[in-house]
Structures are given as C-alpha cells and as structure tokens.
C-alpha cells in the first residue's frame, strides 16, 4: 500500500495512524510539536495522549508538514474543527493532487455553520476526493485493540471503499455509505446529547433520566439531520445511534466529561481549563441551534444544554420532561 498521512498527533489522530499501520500501511504522522514527533519515532509511544500504548514501527512522525504530505495517497485530518480552515489554507497546496482527503473530525465551523467536508471543499478539494470517517470510536479503546466498527462516507462510493479498506484491520472494521450529511451530522450532534448525559450524571440522576434524554435526544438530532438532507437510516446506524451510545456514557468521552463537570457546578471557563483536549460539543451548541432555528426545528434538550453552559439554568433542571413535548413522534 502507498504512503498514508495523518495530520494531528492527539489521541484520535495517533490512534488512527495505528489503525492504518495495523492494516498494513506505511503511515506518516504530523505532530505540531517536534518533541512529540521525536518521542513517537524513538520510543514508539505518545505518552501525553495514549499512555501505555505501543505504536507500530510503520508509523513515522514529523513536525514538518511538507515531509508528512509528500507522496501520500490518502490524507487523514485530525485537528480541532475550528482550526481546519486556517490549516488547510496553509497546507492545501502541499496535498498531492489525487490524494483522498479524509476528515476524522466532528464539529461545525462557528462562523459559517459548515460541516468539515464543506470546509475542505471550500479550500479547493473536489468532492470526489473527500471522505468522512465516523462512528462509535473512543480513541483509547481502539488503541487498546478492542473490537469496534466505523463508517467511511463519501458521495463517491469508490473513494469511501478505498478509505474503508485502508482503515480496516483485525480489530476495526470500517463500513461504507454515501450519506455524507448524515454521517457528519451524526458525529456532530451526538456530542451535544453526550454533554446533556454528562450533566445529569454529574448531578447524580440515574439511568431512567439518562435513557430518557438519550432516546429523546436521538429524536431531536435525527429531525435536525434529516431536515438538512440526511437519510433517516443513517441516524440509527454507526454514525448516529452507535456513536451516541458510546459517547454518552463513557468516561473516555471528552464531551461526557465536560458535561459531568458542568453538572457538578463548574463553569464553562473552569471546564475548558480542566480539559486536556477539545470537547467539540461545547463549541458546537450555539451554532447547531442557529442552524436548527433556520429550519424551524425544535431541539429543546440541546437548548437546555446551552442554558446550562451559559450558567442560565441549574444543571438539576435538565430533564426530558421539561421539553414541552407531550407526544412521542412515530417512527423515531
């Protein structure tokens, strides 16, 4: 297999580099800090983000982006979503002309409300080369080689198949679909419900409350995604329900952890200061609600999350019975 590149040596970027290498590829990994690249190359570890995990010898790291991108047939992007446009404006000219560009990110751009595939397209990458990878993929579990599944989505099925082939190995199976909108929104929107679940967990509520919020939350995010062109079936697949389940309950989830701290009374500023990595859900709430209002979509649970984040509602008051929906929609 030809060289594959992964941009971003955080927990998920490094994990995905491992996935690709364990699938048989030679992988070049870009690290923002040269000392991290040196650690990966010499000890085959990333102690800051994947403590205790041995990385394959097929992974080489560099802080030089041109070196990482040179000759790559597939380029996997794992940077904070709000930094993507600025990074691509700088790097796009270095991406090989026919390379597939794969988003591993789950966020929307604050100023524009655009999904990551749309941002990639706006910097000049043709849609036929853009692929999204999503699913119930907690980095530390996959790095530990616990069995899992993901989905690669592209409007061009052959591109999705190439990425699925590269990112499947003995412990991760990657499936394909052509619903880019649903796959991306599934990954974005479940973060908001995961924050809500974290909040009620921090408050101390039990499984009934969490199950109610998870199921009614799935209904909310499904309505949103379908209104923007997603296929309903995608939202009950790996990128929707699967990712929602994994992210909502796991202590490994940054969004769940952020919500839990909010539920315990920490302010947004305190939560951000205590998190070692970005919780995309905190930054996406307001943008998603703006998009929902543009389509006339009701998202009462997500609205409650925003109120808690802003300190305008007590965490104890977040609950499904406060959504003012008395009838459960059929078929959701």
From TrEMBL:
One of its GO terms (biological process) is glycerol-3-phosphate catabolic process. GO terms for molecular function: glycerol-3-phosphate dehydrogenase [NAD(P)+] activity; NAD binding. Residues 179-318 form the Glycerol-3-phosphate dehydrogenase NAD-dependent C-terminal domain. The keyword Oxidoreductase applies. Keywords: NAD, Oxidoreductase. InterPro entries: 6-PGluconate_DH-like_C_sf (IPR008927), 6PGD_dom2 (IPR013328), G3P_DH_NAD-dep (IPR006168), G3P_DH_NAD-dep_C (IPR006109), G3P_DH_NAD-dep_N (IPR011128), NAD(P)-bd_dom_sf (IPR036291). Pfam families: NAD_Gly3P_dh_C, NAD_Gly3P_dh_N. The keyword Oxidoreductase applies. Residues 3-155 form the Glycerol-3-phosphate dehydrogenase NAD-dependent N-terminal domain. GO terms for cellular component: cytosol. Belongs to the NAD-dependent glycerol-3-phosphate dehydrogenase family. This is Unannotated protein.
């Amino acid at each position: 297999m030809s060289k594959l590149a992964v941009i971003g040596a955080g927990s998920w970027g490094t994990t995905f580099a491992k996935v690709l290498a364990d699938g048989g590829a030679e992988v070049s990994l870009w690290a923002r800090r040269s000392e991290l690249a040196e650690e990966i190359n010499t000890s085959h570890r990333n102690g800051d983000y994947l403590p205790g995990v041995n990385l394959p010898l097929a992974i080489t790291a560099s802080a030089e982006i041109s070196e990482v991108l040179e000759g790559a047939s597939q380029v996997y992007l794992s940077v904070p979503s709000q930094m993507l446009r600025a990074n691509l404006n700088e790097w796009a000219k270095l991406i090989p002309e026919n390379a597939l560009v794969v988003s591993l990110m789950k966020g929307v751009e604050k100023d524009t409300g655009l999904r990551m595939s749309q941002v990639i397209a706006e910097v000049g990458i043709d849609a036929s080369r853009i692929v999204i990878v999503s699913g119930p993929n907690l980095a530390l579990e996959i790095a530990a080689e616990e069995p899992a599944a993901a989905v690669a989505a592209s409007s061009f099925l052959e591109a999705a198949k190439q990425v699925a082939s590269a990112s499947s190995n003995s412990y991760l199976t990657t499936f394909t679909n052509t619903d880019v909108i649903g796959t991306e929104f599934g990954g974005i929107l479940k973060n908001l419900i995961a924050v809500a679940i974290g909040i009620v967990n921090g408050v101390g509520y039990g499984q009934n409350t969490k199950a109610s919020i998870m199921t009614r939350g799935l209904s909310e995010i499904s309505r949103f995604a379908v209104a923007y062109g997603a296929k309903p079936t995608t939202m009950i697949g790996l990128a929707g329900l699967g990712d929602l389940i994994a992210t909502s309950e796991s202590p490994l989830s940054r969004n769940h952890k952020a919500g839990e701290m909010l539920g315990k009374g920490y302010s947004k500023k305190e939560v951000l200061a205590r998190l070692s990595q970005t919780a995309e859900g905190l930054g996406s709430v307001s943008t998603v609600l703006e998009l929902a209002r543009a389509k006339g979509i009701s998202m009462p649970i997500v609205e409650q999350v925003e109120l808690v984040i802003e300190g305008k509602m007590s965490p104890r008051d977040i609950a499904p019975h406060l959504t003012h929906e008395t009838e459960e929609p059929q078929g959701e």
